[in-house]
TrEMBL record, chain A:
It is a multi-pass membrane protein. Keywords: Cell membrane, Membrane, Transmembrane, Transmembrane helix. This is Branched-chain amino acid ABC transporter permease. GO terms for cellular component: plasma membrane. Pfam families: BPD_transp_2. The chain crosses the membrane at residues 20-37, 44-72, 92-111, 118-138, 167-186, 253-278, 290-310. It comes from the Bacteria. The keyword Membrane applies. GO terms for molecular function: branched-chain amino acid transmembrane transporter activity. It is found in: Cell inner membrane. Its main location: membrane. InterPro entries: ABC_transp_permease (IPR001851), LivM-like (IPR043428).
UniProtKB/TrEMBL annotation, chain B:
The lineage of its organism: Bacteria, Pseudomonadati, Pseudomonadota, Gammaproteobacteria, Oceanospirillales. It is found in: Cell inner membrane. One of its GO terms (cellular component) is plasma membrane. GO terms for biological process: amino acid transport. Keywords: Amino-acid transport, Cell membrane, Membrane, Transmembrane, Transmembrane helix, Transport. This is Branched-chain amino acid ABC transporter permease. It comes from Oceanospirillum multiglobuliferum.
Length: 323, 295
């Protein structure tokens, strides 16, 4: 009885901590563009959302997708094409991009969940490479040049997003929506079942859960949100290019999640902010051609020395010293 | 000469030959991946980087030390295997108790480091490496022209693949390896040094990649990104074949090379994607892979 009560209060405390953390982040997000260059912040937010979407798969369902670049790129290309060639408003463009990514996620998911573990990673990587080659050849992607000069347009046809400040708050709103969806998904019964599958798949099956269906839903949700990140990014930079579809991008999002903390709610945000800051900082200095090497080193160090990532380590530290 | 299936035979056989050569490389690389996976349970993402290292060791040797092709063919795999063994002993070894995905991520990080460093020093464009004198020229077979070096690639990789198969399936060392794949703890209980076996296996798999790299040096230019380009295709080949059998890896590799070659003749637009499409079909029809056991 007492332990039950204690547990409940701990859960409540945990929830309120997440809420407090989220409020703090939101507050920082609201005032940040007055201190830091908004385009940089938007880049961070887009990649943070991308990493959160990826984390939903790896952190909560235990599925390592090595093909998330495909969804980022699809969101970007389809939204860019819709806005440029069909002349739709940005929110409709993003919606179309997200639907396209979700549909691709459905196809990827259907194929990849036929195999487990390491095969799952290889299949998603191969499928993403297939998509990469398709985008190299497809007429609507602009090949090596990509789609350039995508207009940001007017939100709902009224609010101009041309300025960086209105665009920033639009991106922040999208991030908050995406983050909330992920948070809700993780803390719902659906999220609990995903965790059960991650911990012990045969047992989840024996309890009567249609494991493949849950994995597929998680995959589609993750792909849709990765697409949302890509769509938004294409409007921010007014560019959709092959860089997003390259397998290096799939690796980068893994690194962001791993560095921040796999399976923690704020980890991917911290990881994305760290990696993007590092890339921006290094690309201007003399070390610019060493960026891939440095990312590789961080990868190796993370895997060998701190597998729980920045947020995971902080959590461990506070648990040890303040509980 | 009459046309075959609406194409001049030179074109058809020429592309089939190129397909067979690519297939030889797929076979060598997927064989190495399969052997490593069998015992270590990790996918060696650095395999492409090690293939590239093999080509670069040969190139370095020729340029700075006058080491000829034939010596490089033996020396480069040994050098790269030594590097691989060092990686296994210092880094990979720490991860055997963890989830197998961490092995994939670690080797991915290593691949980024190796490839990134070489791009920094050599750029992405390739370095030339000439065909050794004894293998220059070629023969006219009547229906097509067969360059000697290309024939050599096919012969050399087949010999190495079958040699590997023989070693694993028919020798005592191979029996230990197969036993280790089935049940490493039991094997260790019988007094076999399993950690040493694991180290040697990783070294051998890596040596196969480096051997393929040396073979590739004269026909593809020696470039830092040559490994990552081929590796993802090899992953698809591995998914198609399943990693359960040695022969499966070799046969699937050659077969996929041929299919790619044929696609170049009949529908060139799809030649970069056809192997991935085959992978999709195999996943739908036979999810465990052509030679895989149901898992």
């Amino acid at each position: 009885m007492t332990t039950q009560v204690l547990k409940n209060s701990a859960v409540e405390k945990g929830m309120s901590k997440t809420k407090m953390g989220f409020m703090l982040l939101l507050l920082i997000g609201l005032v940040a563009p007055y201190a830091i260059y908004p385009v940089f912040l938007m880049k961070v937010l887009c990649f943070a959302l991308f990493a959160c979407a990826f984390n939903l798969m790896l952190g909560y369902a235990g599925l390592l997708s090595f093909g998330h670049a495909a969804f980022l790129a699809t969101g970007g290309y389809i939204t860019g094409y819709a806005v440029m060639e069909m002349g739709v408003t940005p929110e409709i463009g993003i919606l179309i991009g997200v639907i396209a990514s979700a549909a691709m996620g459905f196809v990827f998911g259907k194929l990849a969940i036929r195999r487990q573990g390491i095969y799952f990673a290889m299949i998603t990587l191969a499928l993403a490479q297939l998509v990469f080659f398709l985008y190299v050849q497809a007429p609507f992607t602009g090949g090596e040049n990509g789609l350039q000069g995508i207009p940001r347009g007017n939100l709902f046809g009224v609010i101009s997003l041309k300025g960086n400040l209105p665009m920033y708050y639009f991106v922040l709103a999208i991030f908050v929506i995406g983050f909330t969806i992920i948070h809700r998904a993780i803390h719902s019964p659906f999220g609990q079942i995903l965790k059960a599958i991650r911990e012990n798949e045969p047992r989840a099956i024996s309890l009567g859960y249609d494991v493949d269906k849950y994995k597929l839903v998680a995959f589609v949700l993750s792909a849709a949100l990765a697409g949302l990140a890509g769509s938004t990014k294409s409007l921010v930079f007014q560019l959709a290019s092959l860089t997003d579809a390259n397998w290096h991008m799939s690796g980068e999002v893994i690194l962001m999640t791993l560095l921040g903390g796999v399976g923690t709610i704020f980890g991917p945000v911290v990881g994305a902010a760290t990696v993007v800051t590092l890339q921006n900082y290094l690309s201007q200095g003399p070390l610019s051609s060493w960026v891939p090497v440095i990312l590789g080193l961080i990868f190796v160090v993370c895997v060998l020395l701190f597998r729980s990532g920045i947020v995971g380590e902080i959590k461990k530290f506070t648990k040890k010293n303040f509980n | 000469m009459a046309e075959l299936l609406g194409f001049p035979p030179q074109v058809l056989f020429g592309q089939l030959l190129i397909g067979l050569i690519n297939g030889s490389f797929y076979a060598l690389l997927s064989l190495g991946l399969a052997i490593i996976f069998g015992l270590l349970n990790i996918i060696n993402f650095a395999h492409g980087a090690q293939y590239m290292l093999g080509a670069f060791v040969a190139w370095f040797g020729l340029k700075f030390f006058g080491v000829n092709y034939w010596v490089a063919l033996i020396l480069a795999p040994l050098v790269v295997a030594a590097i691989g063994i060092a990686i296994e002993k210092t880094l990979l070894r720490r991860l055997y108790k963890e989830d197998h995905l961490y092995g994939l991520l670690l080797t991915f990080g290593l691949a980024l480091i190796i490839e990134g460093s070489f791009v920094h020093f050599f750029g992405v464009s390739g370095q030339p490496y000439s065909v050794p004198a004894a293998l220059q020229g070629g023969n006219n077979l009547g229906f097509m022209f067969l360059p000697t070096y290309r024939a050599w690639i096919i012969v050399a990789s087949l010999v190495v693949c079958f040699g590997t198969w023989y070693m694993i399936e028919r020798t005592k060392l191979g029996a230990y390896l197969r036993a280790g794949t089935e049940n490493p703890k039991l094997l260790q209980a019988f007094g076999i040094n399993v950690p040493l076996l694991i180290t040697l296996t990783y070294g051998y798999g890596v040596a196969l990649a480096a051997f393929a790299g040396v073979l590739a040096a004269p026909i593809y230019s020696v470039s830092p990104v040559m490994g990552s380009n081929i590796l993802i295709v090899v992953f698809a080949v591995v998914v198609i074949g399943g990693m359960g059998s040695i022969m499966g890896a070799v046969v699937t590799g050659l077969l996929m090379g041929l299919i790619e070659g044929l696609t170049k003749v009949f529908y060139p637009e799809a030649s970069t994607t056809v192997i991935f499409l085959v992978m999709i079909v195999v996943l739908l029809v036979r999810p465990a892979g052509l030679f895989g056991k149901e898992a």
